[in-house]
UniProtKB/TrEMBL annotation:
PROSITE patterns with a match to the protein in the record: N6_MTASE
Protein name per Swiss-Prot or TrEMBL: Putative methyltransferase
SUPFAM superfamilies in alphabetical order: S-adenosyl-L-methionine-dependent methyltransferases
Species of origin: Phycicoccus elongatus Lp2
A GO MF term: methyltransferase activity
GO terms under biological process: rRNA methylation
Keywords from the named record: Methyltransferase, Transferase
Length: 190
């Protein structure tokens, strides 16, 4: 069972898309991630982007904890429908929640929003080259604010992502099979 950990919608259960294609971030990993982000004031008031959103757990957790807007991008239409239902069920009318049923590449090519916080949680079988292409597209001018933080979730067996040259990579946090990688334009102490 996946649930919102804390914030205004804390404790609410989230549906997960049917099938084996979605791997929701565990409650333990989300709790550790958001404790670190909340302690540094990264979430409150942020424009958040959740790429490869799956059930929407990361983006919706950010919404519950005070993000002002969250764009959730998921190419699987069934999963996008589940995300929409989860978002509607949270009852957060003051947060702009937008579910984008499209590929990550398509969203990044057409987005005009500058994001403060980005979650990149692709399927573990996404190649390192494809992930590097996504990060490069994400780093295009106007897509990130000067204070933006990017969090990439990968298998602990995966190498460190290939960050764009103007980003500062920070140390990773490992939680069993999951590793969270942090990077920013200005550097970020994780």
């Amino acid at each position: 069972m996946t649930r919102i950990i804390a914030g205004r919608a804390g404790g609410r259960t989230l549906r997960t898309p049917p099938g084996a294609g979605t791997r929701p971030t565990s409650d333990r990993v989300r709790e550790a991630l958001f404790s670190a982000l909340d302690a540094r004031g990264v979430v409150a008031g942020a424009a958040v982007l959740d790429l490869y959103a799956g059930s929407g757990a990361l983006g919706l957790e950010a919404a519950s904890r005070g993000a002002r807007s969250v764009d959730l991008v998921e190419s699987d239409r069934r999963a996008a429908s589940v995300i929409s239902a989860n978002a509607e069920g949270l009852g957060l009318p003051d947060v702009r929640l937008r579910v984008r049923a499209m590929t990550v590449t398509h969203h990044l090519a057409g987005s005009d929003t500058a994001y403060d916080l980005v979650f990149v949680d692709p399927p573990y079988d996404l190649s390192e080259a494809a992930l590097a292409d996504v990060l490069t597209a994400l780093g295009a001018p106007g897509r990130l604010t000067d204070r933006a933080l990017v969090v990439v979730e990968r298998s602990s067996r995966s190498p460190e992502p290939s960050w764009p040259p103007d980003w500062t990579a920070d140390r990773a946090r490992k939680y069993g099979e999951t590793t969270l990688w942090f990077a920013s334009l200005l550097g970020f102490d994780t």
